[in-house]
Structure formats: structure tokens, C-alpha cells
Amino acid sequence: MKLSFIKKIAGLLALACLWVWPWPVAAQQVQHLAVAQPGGIPGLPVLTGIEVVSNGVNVTWAGPSGYYQVWQKQNLAAARWTSVGKGTNLARNATITSLTNNAFFRVSGPSPNYLGSQGCAECHANIRGTALNTPHFGAFTNAAFAVAGGQTNVSCLVCHTVGFGAPTGFVSPSKTPLLANVQCENCHGPAANHAANPGDPTVIPQVDLAATVCGGCHSASQTSYPNPPTFEEWSASEHAAVTPDVLQVMSASTNNIRTCGVCHSGSARLAMINGSDPAIVLTKDYNVPQTCAICHDPHQTNAYPFQLRNPMASFDNFELTSSNVATEASFTNTYKASVNINLCAQCHNDRGAAWSDTARAPHYSLQYNLLLGSVGEQLYLPSPFPGPHSGLPSTAIYSTNGVFYLTNQCASCHMPPETASSSAHNHTFSPSYNVCLNCHDGPSYQASLSYNLSNQVCQVLTDLNRWAGVQTNSLLATNGIVAWEYSTPGGLTWQANPAGVVTNWSLNNPVTFTGPGSAGQQLIPDNIKKARFDLYLILNDGSFGVHNPLYASFLLQSADAFVLSTPK
Ligand code: HEC
Ligand code: HEC
Ligand code: HEC
Ligand code: HEC
Ligand code: HEC
Ligand code: HEC
Ligand code: HEC
Ligand code: HEC
Ligand code: HEC
């Protein structure tokens, strides 16, 4: 054991040295690739962080799986590197307590041994079988790359081959034919040692959901060939971090990882769709946001374009409720039955919100259901059912040049092409108002929509407050003009503080309001509950009605009618 350990370390690989400097390293229990590297998981160790901690300095690095040793030089002039601490196994971080002020560090580790995907076939035939059909496995051999001169241009190879620039990595098509194209080891790290000895836990390849695994290649930062800034855009999006509030909620109980993590945590979501219970599997790794591998299947091109795990458009109602994720069996049924549901709708749905809920307003994620018009309490069923932006086939939705612009539903507006002629799509997920011009004449519709809707919102709110002010139930009266609210008041009550307590704006006579508790909720008439539900659907959707303009307006109209028809 000792000997083989030394042998692995002996493939010594020096590293850039860094000053001791507080470098932010996310305090994660599972270590993810911290810095995007062209080529994917680096074959040689790369220092990714040096962070001052209470008892010394924490050094983190990326590199292949295996044993590493950290070395220290006390100062620039020092003649020797001295080893610090013990060799690490799989953990690619070490805390160093024996410090001097200007220490330098380097890390030595396993020599990368690349194999090529043929060598994985024996044991991972299924994965390899489908992965071979992905564009990655033609990244070097495809005609476009050859025509662009990439095959003989060294500046192109790191992202189009396996391990270029590292020992045993790609050299040339004649010398290393098995390492052309992007393959398994770009995303999992060099794996020849694992293939030779699959039972050896010290060389087990990495499975990392971090976007950095993809981001070093899917980046515009290399200038040799014009690449879309996919990683940069994603990094700027809300999908790039788990909402801090929700992180806290998930850290409080494993059950919260199940009920919130299935949409808020990428790793919990994947555990769920792979048939495991996220609450049990992922107590340590729920800090992964909506990364590339959550939307894209790295191993296969399936029925959907761009290796997406789900299609981009669908018209069936769908909601992910805590009851259908509570047990594996019921989730599997829900998911299997609805894999044909729009990728975005997998998370951006109403979570089963109903007008009869009393604890809180519908969740902020209800976009899909509003787009379709499948959530909301209506006075009557409108005909034709308004949903012009859902992409339902309607001649009105064809532009003059006959293109069906909303074919991709959410992605049509939120992921428009980077440029008019580009085949790459914006990954910030922010909607483009330019897209509207494909079907509408000018930007005035947007202004008029928000003007009309905000008038309607004010009208419903005023009528709800008025109803609450004059209604005659004495228990509800203790809640004052927000007697119509949910127990946890939503964003439409005045100055809700973080505890959900709202204060009247009268300076002379401050009055504290809270929504009615459960006893009070039972006294709120159904029509008031329906009205507040509709009102909050429009508010929490976050599109100011754009997702379904005519329907949004109709719901607010319905809401007001519900209030006005309610006896005091
Ligand atoms: C001789 C059989 C064999 C070969 C060849 C082999 N593997 Fe594996 N691989 C395994 C086994 C067995 C496991 C499961 C090990 C475990 O979970 O302890 C595994 C696990 C993995 C994992 C998942 C680790 C995890 O944490 O879930 C990855 C990734 C992987 N192999 C990649 C590769 C790649 C890439 C190659 C080719 C370069 C390869 N393997 C070749 C047998 C093999
Ligand atoms: C080593 C560099 C590298 C890494 C790492 C990498 N990619 Fe790629 N990817 C490429 C290249 C190069 C292409 C273009 C292949 C082609 O079309 O010839 C590509 C193509 C794709 C495509 C196909 C696009 C299309 O037009 O159909 C998808 C999807 C994709 N990558 C997603 C990912 C995801 C998700 C990850 C991380 C899990 C990832 N990639 C990691 C280099 C990489
Ligand atoms: C930093 C990594 C990186 C480098 C370096 C790089 N590429 Fe790429 N290349 C990619 C990625 C990622 C894609 C896929 C982009 C996508 O589909 O969004 C790609 C796609 C391509 C495509 C389109 C493939 C197809 O099938 O249509 C061509 C052609 C190409 N690259 C040529 C080159 C050439 C030539 C060079 C060197 C001058 C180069 N690349 C350097 C990452 C890289
Ligand atoms: C573009 C990056 C990428 C490539 C290429 C890739 N993988 Fe993976 N692999 C991932 C990611 C991300 C996961 C975790 C997400 C998932 O399971 O879908 C994963 C999961 C795995 C797992 C563990 C879970 C499972 O699905 O069994 C194994 C084993 C594995 N990959 C083997 C391989 C082999 C073998 C190849 C080559 C034939 C390969 N991978 C190619 C990114 C990649
Ligand atoms: C069905 C998927 C889903 C589930 C389950 C879910 N959420 Fe969300 N949540 C979302 C989506 C999608 C958004 C983003 C919507 C937006 O910003 O407009 C969101 C937004 C939020 C926000 C607002 C974030 C912000 O940036 O303002 C909070 C807070 C939140 N969720 C908390 C939770 C908590 C706590 C749970 C568990 C009890 C939970 N969510 C369960 C999908 C979900
Ligand atoms: C795995 C679940 C999941 C999937 C799939 C998903 N989202 Fe999200 N999305 C979220 C969560 C959770 C948030 C909230 C993040 C936060 O606020 O911290 C969010 C935030 C957003 C936001 C920003 C909202 C804001 O408050 O600014 C937009 C826009 C968005 N998503 C659009 C999309 C689109 C378009 C798709 C499909 C291409 C999609 N999402 C797919 C979970 C998901
Ligand atoms: C007709 C174009 C269009 C379509 C289709 C569309 N959106 Fe939107 N979306 C918008 C606009 C415009 C906004 C308002 C953004 C702003 O100005 O803040 C928006 C807002 C959002 C927000 C809230 C952003 C925030 O800042 O709170 C989320 C989340 C979102 N959309 C997700 C989706 C999802 C998921 C789908 C598909 C079910 C979808 N959208 C379909 C145009 C569209
Ligand atoms: C929330 C889901 C989501 C996430 C997260 C996501 N993508 Fe995508 N991606 C999509 C969708 C949807 C499309 C297709 C858009 C369209 O055709 O309108 C796409 C398209 C692509 C394509 C094809 C070329 C293009 O730009 O259309 C590549 C390559 C790609 N994504 C790579 C990535 C990488 C790399 C990451 C992480 C940095 C990532 N994606 C994160 C949903 C996602
Ligand atoms: C694919 C074409 C298409 C796109 C793109 C599109 N719309 Fe629409 N929009 C329609 C159709 C069709 C109607 C229904 C018109 C009707 O019935 O009078 C409509 C209705 C509307 C309405 C309400 C009725 C009206 O005419 O005033 C508003 C407001 C609106 N859209 C705003 C937007 C905004 C904002 C965007 C961009 C974020 C957008 N639309 C993008 C096709 C589109």
C-alpha cells in the first residue's frame, strides 16, 4: 500500500504557486470544480483557492482523482519544497496549520492516464452507446472543424480532444487516434487507472454536476474561434446560484431538500429524476443550482434537441406538488407520465396552488400554468380561451413571413438567438422585448399592458381592502384592512416586514396587521379567497401579464367581480 502510494505521488506535477491570500472558496461539503478550465476536468492539478481559516490556510485544487501531496516553500528564496501534512486521497483540499507569512504552495498528484472511451465500453456499454451519438464525440472529426483548420491548429485542440497538453493526452490523430473528439474523460477526468482497477476507490472518476465542468469549453473567453458565451451568460443568470433563503430552509431539514430542492437544487432534482429520494441521497450536496447538466443530458441525444432532458414546448397541464415527490413511486409516475412536459415547466409551475389554500399566496414559479391559462379562478370559461403566447397553433401567431415564433414557448422569449443569424441561444434566461416585434408593431403594447394591468391590480386591491374594512365579523376585524389576506401576507400588503407583520402607514397611529390565522381563514368567504388567489397569480408570475396578457386581464376582472359580489 505504502509503495503504490509513493508510486502514484511520484508522477510529480509542479504547479503555479500562489501567495497566501484570502480566496473565497464556497464552503461546500462536496467538492466541485471551482474554476472552469478549457478541456473540462483538468488532467494536471490546478490550484483553485487558498483561503485563510481559523487554524491556518485551506488550499484547494482541481485535478484527476487520486492521491495528492501539498508542498510548501517558506519564502521565495527558500531552496526546498517541504511536504506538509499527509497525502490526501480523493479530497482535493488540505488545511495547513504550519504557516509562515509568505508561504508558497504547490500540489503534486497522480499522473493523468487517459484511455479513450473504447476502454470504458466493456463496463459502461450503455452510456458509451448513447454518448457516441452526441456532437461531443464528433467534435474533432466533424467536417466543420476540419474545414475550419482546427485539426491541425494547436490552439483549437484543448476543447475538441481528450487531454490535449497533458501527459498521455491527445497529440495527433496518427499518434493518439483514440483521444480525438470530446469524450468521457473531458467531463470525468483521466480514467485509465480506474478502468484497469475499477474496484480501487482511490481512482474512481469524478461525477460533478458543476457548470464549470462544461464552462471552460462552452465559453467565449478563448479568442481563437468565435464561441457563444454560454457559460458567461449562465453565470449571470438566476439559475447560477441557489436562492440563499432556500439554502437555509434546506439546511434545516432533509425533508425540505425534498420539498424545495426538487426545483431549487439541481442535485436534488437529478436524484429525483434518477429515481432516488433526494432527501436521503443529498444531504451533503444540495448546494448545486440549475447547472448545464440539469437541463442537458450529457450522455445522449434523445428525442429533444440539444440533448435537452425534456421538450421545449407542451400543452398539458402539469404541476409538481410535494405529494408527488414525497414517495419515489408517485414521483416516478408523475415524472414518467409527464416527461413530455416543457423543460422549464418542470420547475416553473404552480406547485398545485389552489384558491382554497390559506397559508400563503401561490408560489412565484407559476409561469407555465399562467402561460397555458390552466391556473386561476374564472367568472366563466372564456371562449376562445385566451392564451396567445402559449404557442398554441393559431393563425394569428404566424408572423408575416410564416415563422411560428413561439414554437419553443418559454425559450422563444427567454432564450432568443444570440444574433439574428446565430444558432446559439442566450443563456441568461432574461426575456428579450425585441422578440415581441416579430408579431407586434411597436413597443407600445408593453406599456399599455402594464398600465392597464396595474390599474386593474389597484382596483382589486382597493376593493379587497374596502371589503375587509367594512366586513362585520369581529374575529376578522382584528386583522383590519388585511382581513382578506393569507396567513402569511404576500407582497400586496403594506410594508410587510420579514416576519410577515404589516404596519399601517399612518404615522400618528401605527397599527400592526397580520393575515388571519387558521380560525380566521375559515371565516373568509370563498369569493374573497378566489379573488386574492387570482390577484397573487398575476403578481407572483413576475411577467406583468406578458405570459398571457388577455387571460391576466380577464383574471383580474374576475377577481374584482368576486369581491364586489361578496356580502359584507
Ligand atoms: C472493468 C470495468 C470498468 C471499466 C473498464 C471502466 N469502469 Fe467506470 N466504473 C466501473 C465500476 C464497477 C464502477 C462503480 C464503482 C463504484 O461505485 O464503486 C464505475 C464507476 C464509474 C463512474 C461513476 C463514479 C461514481 O461516483 O458514480 C464513472 C464516471 C466511470 N466509472 C467512468 C469510467 C470511464 C470514463 C471509463 C473509461 C475510461 C471507465 N469508467 C471504465 C467499472 C469500470
Ligand atoms: C472539452 C470541451 C467540452 C466540454 C468539457 C463540454 N463540451 Fe459540450 N461541446 C464541446 C464542443 C467542441 C462541441 C461542438 C461539437 C460539434 O458540434 O462538433 C460541444 C457541443 C455540445 C452540445 C451540442 C450542441 C448542439 O448544437 O447540438 C451540447 C448540448 C453540449 N456541448 C453541452 C455540454 C454540457 C452540458 C457539458 C458539461 C456537462 C459540456 N457540453 C462539456 C466541447 C465541450
Ligand atoms: C475554449 C474551448 C474551445 C476552443 C479553444 C475552440 N473551440 Fe471550437 N467549439 C467549442 C465549443 C464549446 C463548441 C460548441 C459551441 C456550441 O454549440 O454552442 C465549438 C464548436 C466549434 C465548431 C462548430 C462545430 C460544428 O459541428 O458545427 C467549429 C467548426 C469549431 N468549434 C472550430 C474551432 C476551431 C477552428 C478552433 C481553433 C481555432 C476552436 N474551435 C477552438 C470550444 C472550443
Ligand atoms: C459532457 C460531459 C460528459 C461526458 C462526455 C460524459 N459524461 Fe458521464 N456524466 C456526466 C455528468 C454531468 C454526470 C452526472 C449527471 C447524470 O448522471 O446525468 C455523469 C454521470 C456518469 C456516471 C454515473 C451516473 C450514471 O449515469 O450511471 C457514469 C458511470 C458516467 N457518467 C460515465 C461516463 C462514460 C463512460 C462516458 C463516456 C462514454 C461519459 N460518462 C461521458 C458528464 C459527462
Ligand atoms: C415546483 C418547483 C418549486 C418548488 C417545489 C419550490 N420552488 Fe421556490 N421557486 C421556484 C421557482 C421556479 C422560482 C423562481 C420564480 C421567479 O423568480 O419568478 C422560485 C422562487 C422562490 C423564492 C423567491 C426567490 C427570489 O429570488 O425572490 C423563494 C423564497 C422560494 N422559491 C422558496 C421556496 C421554498 C422555501 C420551497 C420549499 C418549501 C420552494 N421554494 C419550493 C420553484 C419551486
Ligand atoms: C430545475 C428547475 C428549473 C428549471 C428546469 C428551470 N428553472 Fe428557471 N428558475 C428555477 C429556480 C429555482 C429559479 C429561482 C432562482 C433564484 O431566484 O435564486 C429560477 C429562476 C428563473 C428566472 C429568473 C427569475 C427572476 O426572479 O429573475 C428565469 C427568467 C427563469 N428561471 C427562466 C427559466 C426558463 C426559460 C427555463 C427553461 C429553459 C427554466 N427557467 C428552467 C428553477 C428552474
Ligand atoms: C411572450 C414572451 C414570453 C414567453 C412565451 C414567456 N415569457 Fe417569461 N417573461 C416575459 C417577460 C417580458 C417577462 C417580464 C420580465 C421583466 O421585464 O422583468 C417575463 C418574466 C418571467 C419571469 C419572472 C422574471 C422576474 O424577474 O421575476 C419568469 C420566472 C419567467 N418569465 C419564466 C417563464 C417561463 C418558465 C415561461 C414558459 C412557461 C415563460 N416565461 C414564457 C416574456 C415571456
Ligand atoms: C434552464 C435550462 C438550461 C440550462 C441550465 C442550460 N441550458 Fe443550454 N440550452 C437550454 C435550452 C432550452 C436550449 C435550446 C434553446 C432554443 O433552441 O431555443 C439550450 C441550448 C444549448 C446549446 C445548443 C446551442 C445553443 O446555444 O442553442 C448548448 C451548446 C448549450 N445549451 C450548452 C449549455 C451549457 C454549457 C450550459 C451551462 C453553462 C447550459 N447549456 C445550461 C437550456 C438550458
Ligand atoms: C408569435 C407571435 C407573438 C409574439 C412573439 C408576442 N406576441 Fe403578444 N400576442 C400575440 C397574439 C397572436 C396575441 C393575441 C392578439 C389578439 O387576440 O388580439 C397577442 C396579444 C398580446 C397582448 C394583448 C392584446 C393586445 O393586442 O394588446 C399584449 C399586451 C402582448 N401580446 C404583448 C406581447 C409582448 C410584451 C411580447 C414580447 C415579450 C409579445 N406580445 C410577443 C402574438 C405574439
Portion in strands: 5-15%
* Portion in helices: 25-40%
Query: How many strands, which pairing sense, and closed or not: the largest β-sheet?
Result: 3 strands, antiparallel
Ends distance? 82 Å
Please, how many domains?
4
How do the strands line up in the largest sheet? 1-2-5
Overall geometric form:
globular
Number of helices: 23
What class, by secondary structure content?
mainly alpha
User: What is the number of beta strands?
Assistant: 8
Mean pLDDT: 85
Hetero ligands:
heme C
Model regions low in confidence, pLDDT < 50 over at least 5 residues: 1-28, 394-399
Rg, alpha carbons: 28 Å
What would your notes on this structure say?
The chain has 568 residues and is mainly α. It folds into four domains: 2-108, Immunoglobulin-like, CATH 2.60.40; 117-236, Flavocytochrome C3, Chain A, domain 2, CATH 1.10.1130; 241-372, no CATH class; 444-564, no CATH class. It is built from 23 helices and eight strands. It has helices spanning 2-10, 125-131, 143-147, 154-160, 184-188, 192-196, 212-215, 230-236, 244-252, 254-259, 261-264, 266-273, 278-281, 292-295, 322-326, 328-337, 367-372, 410-414, 444-470, 474-477, 518-523, 526-541, 549-564; strands spanning 46-53, 56-62, 67-73, 82-89, 93-96, 104-108, 502-503, 512-513. The strands form three sheets. A three-stranded antiparallel sheet has the order 1-2-5, with no helix packed on it. Helix 19 runs antiparallel to helix 22 (526-541) and helix 19 (444-470) runs parallel beside helix 23 (549-564). The termini are far apart. Residues 238-239, 241, 243, 263-264, 269, 290, 294-295, 343-344, 346-348, 410-411, 414-415, 429, 542 line the site of one heme C.
